[in-house]
Task: structure prediction
Amino acid sequence: MMAFSESVRRLWEIMNPCILCPRRCKVYRSKGEIGFCGIGDMPVVSSVGPHFGEESVLVGTGGSGTIFFAGCNLGCVFCQNFDISHHRSGSKITVERLALSMLELQNHYGCSNINLVTPTHVVAPIAAAIELARQKGLKLPIVYNCGGYDSVETLKLLEGFVDIYMPDMKYADPKVAKKLSNAADYPQINQRAVKEMHRQLGDLQIKDGLAARGLLIRHLVLPNRLAGSFEIMDFLANEISPKTAINIMDQYRPCYNAASHPQINRKPTDEEVAEVRQYMIEKGLIILY
Result:
């Protein structure tokens, strides 16, 4: 076993009791205790492989090398990956196997990056695996593809491990965040996290058509303006960077328990999506697809 860095050791420490994410469940995950995310001290992986449905700047010719982690620190009632995030389908994986998976995505599949999907609650073993994989020749950019509900203290420990931060910005209204994701403090936590991500990596840099480094925001348009899209665009333009890269996503559809919430029990209209994109253009932000 290689000697891990101080950052990796510290990430393991704050998982027992666990304060890795803003939930601060304070369970001892190494002893088998389970918090909000539903995952112990080692990751549960649902799938590993090239993915061609991501933003074009992530896909390239070999696809984005995605690793889907089961469990989540959010409780979204409309989750489109509920079988992974809520039902936690997948298999437990060791640090060594996770590192090998990253190397296989690079060496066997020729992927453009390593895309860590929903990594927030398992960042300690992930960081250890990145260190191990880099020792064995991993060169690909690391994409941190998260829900945006991340602790600044934990993100600081991830500096140097991540090349591209790709967080969601889901909500601007605490009441909506509480109702739809069981996280009333999501807007303030999310804004602090995005500020830290941008501090570390700056605006998105694209080289030869591929994202190389920086911040890429995802924003899912919800029906009835529930996401607070205009407020989020104002925040990014005024407090992050007028050149922030964003993917305004229009693929919301009622999933999981969305039917029990009448305001989100339909797709957003073309007009609802168009008004967000138009406002984004007026703010000078960078649109990605």
About this structure: The chain has one domain: 41-288. Residues 41-288 form a domain with the TIM Barrel fold (CATH 3.20.20.70). The first strand starts at residue 44 and ends at 51. The chain has a mean pLDDT of 96.
